[in-house]
Amino acid sequence: MIDTHCHIDYPQYQEDFDTFIARQKAGGVSKIIVPGVSAESIQTIKAVCQKYPDYLLAGIGLHPTEVKEDWQEQMQQIANELPKNYIALGETGLDYHEDITFKEEQKTVFKQHLKWALQYDLPVIVHSRDAVEDTLSCIREVDTNHTLQGVFHCFSGSYEVAKQITDMGWFLGIGGVITFKNCKLAEGLAKGIPLDFIVLETDAPYMAPVPNRGKLNESIWMCYVVEKLAEVYACSPEHIIAQTDLNAKKLFRLGN
Ligand SMILES: [Zn+2]
Ligand SMILES: [Zn+2]
């Protein structure tokens, strides 16, 4: 299993870091992608990823909820870092859920990430919350030749939205949400979203799947997401793991 979205640089994981990693490796997690969220996170992510090169892989980006007064300085620091040793731009995107004070700046920042992704030929990790229309129009505006690739991480949208994303050749990051009661995601996928466009993720420390909902999330718990996907696609958990691994390797251009 490849965890395509895990904030393992967060303080919650630092105390027993090596034990944590050993547990993920023993539980069948072959790689973990650590997305950037701010300029400040650059150094902490570097520090954790250096401990386990080829196992922990870093992204770099400015999360939409981190777009505040100092966004220009943060973007400058990110620009200075690019493109060395990063496997993806992100997370980046639009989040209108709680605060839309910096709505326009969020769009500017997101589009700049998309331009960098084109310039440096990197995939994009997209965070989109209550903003899917604007997110898609930013992508269409920048990626006029349809060369970008990316993932809508922590996807929980409808079949119609999933279809728009996968029709562009982009991926859906599926995590704990699919196991939540009252969640319609499984039904949406079952309507006809091919497994070829799905990657696994935790979004740890958040989004722990049932039966561990509310706990500090771990990549090994993606097994519960795999179980649910096996039901949706009427296949074995092994097949889900093999196909989502292949998808993640394709998207993030990972070796074996
Ligand atoms: Zn996110
Ligand atoms: Zn995240």
What does this structure look like?
The protein is α/β, with parallel strands linked by helices and 256 residues long. It has one domain (2-252): TIM Barrel (Alpha-Beta Barrel), CATH 3.20.20. It is built from 9 helices and 8 strands. The protein has helices at 17-26, 41-51, 71-81, 103-120, 132-142, 159-167, 185-190, 222-232, 237-252; strands at 2-3, 31-34, 56-60, 88-95, 124-129, 150-152, 171-174, 198-200. It has an 8-stranded parallel sheet with strand order 1-2-3-4-5-6-7-8, with helices on both faces. Strand 1 (2-3), helix 1 and strand 2 form a beta-alpha-beta unit. Helix 4 (103-120) crosses helix 5. The radius of gyration is 17 Å and the shape is globular. The chain starts with a strand and ends with a helix. The mean pLDDT is 97. The site of one zinc ion has 4 residues, from loops.
A few lines on this structure:
With 256 residues, this protein is an alpha/beta fold.
